[in-house]
User: What shape does this take?
Amino acid sequence: MNKSEKFWDGASKNYDKTEERFEYIHSRSRENTSKLLKGGDIVLDYGCGTGTAACQFSSLVKEIHAIDISSKMIEIAKEKAAAGKIENVNFEQSDIFDSKYSAQSYDVILAFNMLHTVASPQDVIERISELLKPEGLFISVTPCLGQKMSFLVNLQIQLVRFLCKFGLIPIPIRRITSSEVNKLLETGGFQAVESEEIYKDASSYFVAAKKLKKHNK
Assistant: This one.
């Protein structure tokens, strides 16, 4: 088990509780996403956490493959699915770069609260483009820690970044902005079709972007 897996395993027990304060952002993001999903869609939920979003979207699509590097997160997600008698969501401990995921396999890929924590956002975007079908949809929600936030949230972020600096939190936490997300998508061969700046104690950026038919790297 690597350090990132261990960290998210440790965070899993209280994850839903700690995210309650940002429920407005989460619910608004899920509402926006629901309007874009279709009954025949095959969806990949990258970094699914405890499975709240995947379970909510399950009735709107054909099937969802929901992955997370944390086995403990996946355990909780499976419990939610079982309690809701949800059968078209497959929760699995895995990473998006696993070779078992084939090119052009998904109509939609979700990445909620992910891009500011991965080692290389550029590599992730390229992998997402590879896995999406032609003109497939990438939907992301990204905390924009380089933008407006409450005083309390700012203090918390400063503490987290301090702990990251000394290796106590083994994941990168970027102070990304919505314009940087847009640039990342544009460079990766995507065109935004829907977007919204959502604020509740902190800025978060919802964007749905279509994979372009032709893209010159």
Notes: The chain has seven helices and seven strands. The chain has a mean pLDDT of 94. The chain has one domain: 3-211. The CA atoms of residues 122 and 184 lie 7 Å apart.
